[in-house]
Design brief:
Layout (H helix, E strand, L loop, with lengths): L1 H16 L7 H15 L3 H28 L1 H9 L8 H18 L2 H28 L6 H4 L6 H16 L6 H32 L13 H18 L5 H5 L1 H32 L11 H20 L7 H28 L11
């Protein structure tokens, strides 16, 4: 029996050693689609996805913990890598999205508070470890090879903390102080987006873009501004808790609409590029964990547009989330089915050791 189990255990250990750092995008995607379903009245769908997401989060957390203990040098190597390193920000964003699910879908405020504090700790570790590592690294890739949409997950993680913090602020001792903190995170995320997207847009328009480099995480170009919109809307919807937010409401509203407009602009371009990649250039579809980085922006755009309609009193844009919810659910179902088929067919998800390019 031991001889039979040994090869299997060895394959599992190797898969964990190679685990894609951005796999918590599965939690992000499942969580935001669940929240969108809840807000649009699909309660049973939202609750089913919430249950699944708890399981996803627990399993991925255990795998990450094992990887940290058993394969720490590999984790450090990933963290220093310009391509794989940004994936660690999905642990922060996934924790916050699950916490937001706890509030919106299940009403479990104490659990959401705990997840928020965990996410803040993870944010500090990942943010300063990754950026320190890539700054002090002596041998660095070119801009063409080193920058990609996954870098924007740093913004997603930052804004996810702002969103969850605003949601739980009223349950904490000093709501005004919490909203000041989430406002600062919102502005920090906005600054990071404007900085990083400039480099990505330059890479898009002035450097060669091969099919294998036009990967799904480029949808985070849109997802990062969608969650920035949601962070601003969540602050506006809780402005009664903070005199400061009330004072700067016009600025905050204008800035938030600015980011929603940017997110909307990205959608057609990303669709066109996807058609060009797969229909024109015949790049094959196959499961890759990076596809969760495409599902998440679809769900986030749905939720952020719905919240903007509430915060800015522009109900005529509600037609958008009523359509996008089905696009998000369809994308989630297709990616989940592909993941299951890949697991059953190969013993581990194809692309488990994928490098975001």
């Amino acid at each position: 029996m031991n001889r039979v189990m040994a090869p299997w255990a060895s394959r599992v250990n190797a898969s964990i050693a190679e685990l894609f750092p951005g796999y918590f995008a599965l939690v992000m995607a499942t969580g935001i689609v669940s929240i969108a379903a809840k807000l649009l009245g699909l309660v049973r769908v939202a609750e089913a996805l919430f249950g699944l997401n708890i399981a996803f989060y627990v399993v991925l957390s255990l795998l990450l913990a094992f990887r940290l203990v058993a394969h720490f040098p590999r984790v450090l190597a990933d963290l220093r890598d310009h391509n794989r390193g940004p994936g660690f920000f999905t642990t922060v964003a996934g924790t916050c999205v699950l916490g937001s699910q706890c509030v919106v879908v299940a009403g479990h405020i104490p659990v959401a508070r705990l997840l928020w504090f965990v996410a803040i700790g993870l944010w500090v570790v990942v943010m300063y470890s990754f950026f320190t590592a890539v700054v002090v690294r002596e041998e660095k890739p070119s801009l063409e090879a080193g920058i990609n949409g996954a870098w924007l997950i740093a913004i997603v993680a930052t804004q996810a903390i702002a969103v969850l913090g605003s949601l739980v602020a009223s349950s904490l001792p000093s709501p005004a102080a919490v909203l000041f903190f989430t406002l600062c995170m919102y502005l920090l995320g906005a600054m990071l987006y404007l900085t990083i997207i400039t480099l990505i847009f330059y890479r898009f328009t002035f450097l060669p873009m091969s099919m294998d480099r036009l990967t799904p995480p480029y949808w985070i170009n849109m997802g990062a501004v969608a969650i920035t919109t949601l962070a601003g809307c969540t602050l506006l919807l809780h402005r009664d808790l903070s005199p400061l937010v009330t004072k700067i409401e016009p600025f905050l509203l204008g800035f938030t609409i600015f980011f929603w407009a940017a997110a909307t602009w990205w959608v057609p371009l990303l669709v066109i590029l996807g058609i060009w990649r797969h229909a024109v250039r015949k790049f094959p579809f196959r499961y890759d964990p990076q596809y969760w980085g495409m599902v998440f922006p679809l769900g986030m755009y749905t939720v952020s547009t719905l919240r903007l309609a509430q915060a800015a009193d522009v109900s005529f844009i509600l037609i958008i989330p009523r359509v996008f919810i089905f696009l998000a659910l369809g994308a989630w179902a297709a990616t989940f089915a592909a993941m299951v088929v890949s697991l059953l067919g190969s013993g581990k998800p194809r692309g488990v050791n994928a490098i975001t390019t």
